[in-house]
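Sample entry follows:

:::
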Amino acid sequence: MQKLLKISSCKVASFYTFQRLFLFTLLLCTVTSTALAGENLANDFRTRSFSDEVKRDGEFQGVCLPSYDARLGFAMSGVVSEIPVVKGQEVEAGTVLLRLNSKAEQARLAQLDAELATTIKLKSSRVKLKQAQLDMKQYREAYSEKAASVMETQHAELTAELSKLAVEDEKFNRKILALQLKEMQILVDKMSLAAPRKGVVEEILVEEGVAVEKSGVALRLVTIDPTRIDISVPLEVGMNLNSGDKVNVTYADSYLVTGKITHVAKVADMSSNTLRVSMEIPNPERRPVGVLVTVKLPDSGRLLTTNKQY
């Protein structure tokens, strides 16, 4: 009787183990099928959306961006002493945007400039050399007439040589001063943040009297004329585009402007089968960037029928 109960218990345990294994396998198959279906749906949606855009005569949506967008900072730490520009101000290349306190550096620069400007030490050493050479000549003449000793003549010759070296040393010191002056001028220049190119001051992130760190962002400068637009197009569309091709761009308020393609990527995005296309449009009215626009590519009819292969 006990053996029968033991055998029955083992059969029941085996049945429950098999049932759990079956349910786990069924659940795993369900999850895998759902994931594959979702991926196929995403691929179908991506393909269908690009196909719909091409069918609309080569029209694509993109976002206007600044053609130049830089967050600028100082190459050294310091305290902001002056902000000669304001937000929204248009500046030319080289315009000073911010300045650090440079009183100590300016004082040292003035000192080096004054030292280099004076030639008193050089003139004095040249006069001493002339006097030493004259003394040496006189001692040599005296020695030839046995009116001066060998030691006195040699001393005069060494004095003349030392005077000559003193002149060369002073010339070298002036070269060092010139290099120090140049170095200090570079340091002072670093304490002024200048616009690297023409643009608009978009943001000022510091205030006067505030300490800033080296390479910290202090100001944002943008160029919105021209405006840049980047879009992704299907591979078969991008293969027919070239730098310099004209494009029509329409804003949400139906404002139309003509621009040109500046770059067509040479490497496609394998996951979406697209190419990245960059273009620029003029923006003399200084329209805001960061807005959606519609881009119409050139030769839309040819794009609909071309099936060119690599």
Notes: Residues 2-55 form the longest helix (54 residues). Helices lie at 2-55, 103-117, 120-144, 150-190, 235-238, 300-305. The domain at 59-71+222-296 is CATH 2.40.30.170 (Elongation Factor Tu (Ef-tu); domain 3).
